[in-house]
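Sample pair:
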Amino acid sequence: MATSYKNFIKGIGVIPKSSSDNAVLGDVEVLNTTNTLNFHNGTSSSQILTVAHAAQGTFKVLNKDLDDTTTSIVDSTDTTIKIKFNAAGSTATTTTLLSSQTVNRTLTLPDITDTLVSRNTIDTLTNKTLTSPVINTATADTITGIASGPFVLQSASGQNFTVQAQGNGNLSLQSQGTGDLSIQAAGSGVVNLEGLTINGTAVTGTNISVSSTGTLGLSASTSATLTASTSLGLSASTSLTLTGPTGVKTVGPLLVNEVINSSALGANATLPLSTSPYVTVTNAGVNPSIDMVVNNSDNSFLVLTNRTGVAVNINNDTGATASNRIITGTGSFLTLENNASIMLAYSFANSRWMVVGGTGGGNASVNLTAGETITAGQAVYVSNGPGNDSGRTAGLVYLLDATNDNRIEFFGIASNSATSGNTIRIQTIGGISGLSGLTVGKPIYASVSSAGAIQVTAPIAANEWIIPLGIATSANTAVINGAGSATAVKITSSVLEGLYTDVQLYSSNSTMTNANSVALVSASGGVVTITIPTAATNRGKVFNIKKTDSSLNGVIISPASGTIDGTATKTLAFQYDSLMLVSDGTNYNLI
C-alpha cells in the first residue's frame, strides 16, 4: 500500500509497447514505434493525440471573445495562430492554424462585424463589393498602392466599373509621390464618376491629360473648369465634344495670347505656325505675300493680322509643300490690307489651310502688272489691247485719261508706285490714303489736263469725260467709287458755259486748255499771243477772248490747228474788243 501510494504520487506511467493488442477494450497504450498515445475500443485502436510526442509539447484551448481586450488572442509562447469567430449571441468557434499546416477545406465565416485582417501581399479582388467601413476604419477608408508605383482600378473586359461613396461620404482618388492614378474600363466597359467634385469647381495641376481612344465627353450642367499651370491637353482619336448647359457645343470666350512676328515678310513667304492661334506680322519686304503656313499636324485655327503698314497678298494654292498651301476660295489671291485680319483653318480632308474669314476693313485690292510708270495715288485703267487701245497691251495697267474714249474705264487708284513691267497694287474698293488737296465731303474726278491725276472740280468742256472717282473723307483720304466708269458722262457740247464757265486772266503769251472757256487778256506790257486747242478734237467747244487794256498792243488769237473763218489768226486791237469762237471739228468759226 505504501509503495502504491508512492507511485501514485509520482504520477501514472504508461510503459511503451512494441505492438498493439486491439482486443482489449479500454486499454490505453503507447507504441514505441510511433510514440503516440492510443486508445482501444475492443476491435481497433485510434490516436488520442494526433501529433508525435516530440513535435508539439502543449495542448491549449482558448476561451476568449474578440471584444475582450484583457488578454491576447494569440499566445506569444506558442507556435500556433488561433482565430476565433463569434457572432453576436452565438457560441464561440475557435480555429487553430499550425505554422506548418495546409488548410485544404472550405472555411465558412459567420456574419461578423469585426475587422478581419490586414494583408501585406498583392491580392486580386474579383466580383467583390468593398463597402465602407470594411477597409480600415469608419472615418478614413484608404486603399494604398505600392510607394511611387502605379495604382490601377480596372474592370473586366466589357464590364462597367463604378467608384462610389455611400450616403454623405466623400470619395477621394489620389496618387502619392510620383505615382500615377489610373481608372480604366476594359473592352466596351464604362467608367462612371457621379456627383464628382474636384477641388471645388476646378481641376488643377502642372500637366493634365484627359484622353480617350473613342469619344470623350466633358459636360457640366452649370460650369466646368480645367486649369493647368503648364499645359492642358484634351484629345480624342475620333471626336471631342464640349457641351454647355443648353446642349450647345461651345468653347468660349476663347482667350489667346497675341504673338508678334517681326521677321521681314517678302514675296511668296512661308509663315511659321506659332504656338498661339493669333499672329500679327509687323515687318514687310518688297511685294510681301504668303504662299504657305507650316502645318503642325493638328486641326488648327490661325487668325492673322497685318500691321506691316502695307497690303500683304494671301496667294492661292502656291508653294513647294502642298500640305502647307492656302486655299483662298476665290481661285486667285486675296489681299490683306494693313490693319486687317483673316482667319485660316486647316482641313485634313483637303490637306490645305482654308480661308474662313474675309480680308477685313471693307477694302479690296489686287496686284497687277504696270504697263507704264505709275505713281501711288494715281487713277488707272486696265487696257483691252491694241484693237481698241492703240499702242497698249491687254491686261496691263495704265494711267486713266479723261480725254480719250478708250482710256476712261476707271479701275482703281494705285496704292504703291511701280515702273513698266513690275507688279503694282491697285485698290478698287474702300478707303485710300496718300492723296492731297481734297475737300471733305466733296467728290473727286479724273483730271482732264493730266492722265492719272485727280481734280476736285467736274470737267465742263466738250469731249471731256466726267468720271467720279470717289468722295473725300479728309484732305488726303477718300472712299473709292467702284462704279466710277459706269457713272462716267462725256460732255458733247458746252451748253452749260453760258451759265457757268471758267475764266482765266492772261498778261503774257499763253495756251488755253479745254478746261478754259473765257480769257481776259491785258497787253499793256506788249503784244500777247493766245493759243487755243486744236479744232479737230474739240467739236462744239466754245472759246471767248477779250482785250481788257487801253494800250495799242494787240492780242493775237492763234489755233493750234485749223483756221478762224479761213484765216490763220485773228487780232484784238482795241480795249474791250472780243471774239467768240466755236469749233466745227476742223476749224474755228466766229459767232
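The CA atoms of residues 282 and 308 lie 4 Å apart.
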